[in-house]
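Example complex used in Figure S2.
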Amino acid sequence: MQIIIIGNNIIDNTAALMSANILAATADSSVEIHLLNDGLLNDEKAQHKGGLARSNIPPLNLTTDIATVAPSFAACLRLLKVSEAQFMHECDAQFHLGNHFVSWGEERQNFHHVFSDYGVKFATVEFLPAYLRLLSEQQTSNTLDSYSLAAQMAQRGVFSHPSDDPKSIRSSLNYSWRFSIAKFNALLTAKLDQHKITQHSHAIEQKLRNDSGDITQIQLQNKQIIDCDLVIDCQGKEAPPTQAAEPTLHYVSGIKPLNQHSSVNLYTGTQHGFSVQCLNNTHEQFTQYYWSTSGWPTSYWKTSDSQTGLGDNIKQSFTQEHPSYTAQSQGQIELDLAPPQWQNQQLDLSPLNRKSLSIHSSHLDLLWYTLSTLCNITRHNMRSTLAAKAFNRELTQVTTGFNELNRLTLFPLISGMKNKQTKEDETFLSKEGRERLELFQHCGRVLQEEGDQFPPSYYATLLYGLGITPNTIDPLAYQQDQESLAKTAAQLLRLIDNACKNMPKLS
Amino acid sequence: MSEATPPISRIVIAGGGTAGWMCAAALARVCDKQTTQITLIESENIGSIGVGEATLPVLRDFNRMLGIDEQEFMKATNATFKLGIEFKNWARQGQSYFHPFSGFGLSQNLTPFHLQWLQAHHYTKNAQSKDITLPNFDEFAIVTHAARNNKFAAPGAGNQIDYTYAYHLDATAYAQYLRRYSEALGVVREEGKITHVALDSQCGNITALSLDNGKQVSGDLFIDCSGFRALLIGKVLDTAYIDWRHWLPCDRAVALQTERPPNQPLHSYTTSTAHRAGWQWHIPLQHRTGNGHVYCSKYVSDDEALSVLQSNSGKAINEPKVLHFGAGMRQQCWKRNCISIGLSSGFLEPLESTSIYLIQFGIFKLIELFPRKHNFEIEAKQYNRLMREEYESIRDFLIMHYALNQHKDLPFWADTANMPLPVSLQERLALFKSSGYLPKKRGSFGEASWLAVLYGQHCWPQFKQQGLALLEDDKLLADLQAQHQHMQKSTYTMPAHSSIFPQKPHS
Ligand SMILES: Cc1cc2nc3c(=O)[nH]c(=O)nc-3n(C[C@H](O)[C@H](O)[C@H](O)COP(=O)(O)OP(=O)(O)OC[C@H]3O[C@@H](n4cnc5c(N)ncnc54)[C@H](O)[C@@H]3O)c2cc1C
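Predicted assembly (1014 residues):
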């Protein structure tokens, strides 16, 4: 079995590096993996299509440096046999407990949105309905954040790992990391040899296909021919985001057609987009999202010192520095995968249709999900057309799920908050998203759906945080009497306080 | 938050079979006794269906939620343990396979076990030496060995492969047990036949049920557990029935109870034996055995079906009972203020013991979506969607058993093997054959269950050696043989199932 991974500028192509290492970690020894650099060819193609060639794209160092991932990324590290200690040390990683939304939406909500549970389940009731009941009965005046161990840890600058003891409040914790992409790339590069991945420096001369259009061989400029059973294209889009203003964004890649079953396209999106994040010597455990006055959602990771720029300022300084990025380009590009049917949906970056800001997942989460799915699906037969179809379907489902969550988070912006219903509102959320919102508004509940990467409580606390208050409280919140519910809530506060007191300071 | 919509304070359950009493018990457990009155109406003259003795492992979650002690429950219901189902003559005459309540083997390096087995099977088939053999796929589950040796032990630590178990139980006794439980929690039982259903003239909601003894029972929420009669959801609210008989053509069953055979091992599994135009169940309880022949009346007469049953069962202790049914489900399981649970909501033949599970699923979803008075639409929409997804997923799983049969010479089986399949199943089978991949699916049957039937009925992926996973043949075979041996050995110390439930005179 031979797999060819094509990327350009390999040393900072996270998609290519992760693909090579993850496939190597799961494949048996008979599988050969080749890493090719096809940069030049793509510059030509990109120019031909009217896009900017890679060499003309301004360097966006700011955007490429930090990755924030969801807790599920831990499985990726396990597979790569990278311990947390090694990862934290080598990739300048920091703990990440969730997002902090600051002055978010027209209602100017401030809330922590955490990966963790809220400590206790009140009989069959989730925490949120129980809290809403206590609030409505004036049994508490505390914010939801007060009941979150993660939010309290962040406020006090302390950290401890989750506990295995189900009785401990720390067993409810969940976390991930924020880290330097460049250093992660270096770690992945160092693993290439260990995984016996063959690297080729010569550019691609031609791709040979069989009758059904599958790429069967790739010839390099030095005339070397490599057979292949599977091609993974990690070249990304060679067009800069400005091209997104065009009605259809063309995929300007060296391998076409992209939906051929022998070819999988992975793109991390790290080169493009507008997500300003700075890694400093700080111990902030939440990624902060600020809502700027123009209503331009900008992800901005607050540093501990004098970083004052809110969205607009950053936007201005950014566009001054990089004039080729026009206003249209300032959404963040999501992971872009092969199926052409996604392209319009995923890559529409016009300012009014900010459909794919990555708030709840980073490109690396999607990349990891993509690769683990690919590994599962191709274990038995890499050349199955039906497997390719299944792969596309599963990724569509998950990407849509992530997107939906991001859109729910941005919903207050688009809807002009709850009163105004514009045409745009109707299309901003999908039918599933609208139904989820409708159910939450109606009775404060969220159901677990296929494709959800987070538990229902994650959605519920987000929607509540966004200022959406359910019309009625879950009747099941009333199955416990008020006094004992209030007692349990008070006890939770004490448990959180004690747990935080026993945790070491981060600084 | 508006609390204008009052909570449900009166729940009326129409019917006291397994569905009715499971509903009553669960709702009594979660609703506040002070504010919610639960009434159940049943008619001794009508009685309940009296079959439904094999369950799925999730019933343990239900009992756990009620806080029921396992030993007490098993004693009250004459229950035995169930480790899975033995399918006899399904694929071909004279062949059997076991569907265990567990996974199979150990995955290696992310390669699912079934693909390892497939490779090893291919290797042994082509090996020169006859000494190189590989046990059947289903023998790579501890549970299969335990079951085939009529043993049982609860899963504990130390087993490499986790497994679970369900029960065979006396359904009538279970309903009685739950009745005692519910009444202790304040559920009121009304004896009488429902003769009239009153509707609100404006919104069409059900307002009250009149009984033949002159009583009237009013309510806010009505649960139709009236069995196949579907008194409320069908007769009164006129909800259409989606007919699936073209996929699951069996439409009758004859049931017969027999003595527990003396001095014989007590099976820790259900047996399903294929006959000329249907199949027979064998369900061992502590005090007797449940038998039944499910058949398609187009291909076999009632008399013949009974005679097949009698000649394959032990000494009868009751009169045989013929039951008529049609596979399908209600278009809406929840309409206005009425929710149908149990046989009133639909029926899928008991091949994989799913009816009680569907009752439980319906109850759990009702609790998750428990409404307030008046406005049920949003909850009903979600409930109906979830029930439909669940029914369809079980439907596909059941159809597969028929679609994969190889009895070409018997008209019933030949017809079911050639029938057009639902698209969802068609695609799943094609994908599996081409790639060995089974996409995750929500619902009661996970990947392992699908694999049990697929491998058991010889529907295997094409062996192509074109995947990421290809292990060294010799090593792989040795490893699988060691796994098999370990599994076999793990059952040596398990007690005989009959020693847990010694013979007692039938009552
Ligand atoms: C052949 C066969 C085999 C089965 N095997 C299994 C199995 O192995 N495992 C499994 O999980 N399930 C099995 N089932 C399904 C299982 O029997 C049912 O799901 C379960 O018994 C629930 O039935 P029910 O309570 O909905 O209906 P029923 O048991 O029919 O109860 C209906 C209730 O409604 C009452 N009622 C009806 N009309 C009126 C009226 N007018 N007034 C007052 N009361 C009324 C009756 O008195 C009764 O109490 C099987 C079903 C069949 C047909």
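Chain A touches chain B through 48 residues (CB under 8 Å). The CA atoms of residues 19 and 371 of chain A lie 7 Å apart.
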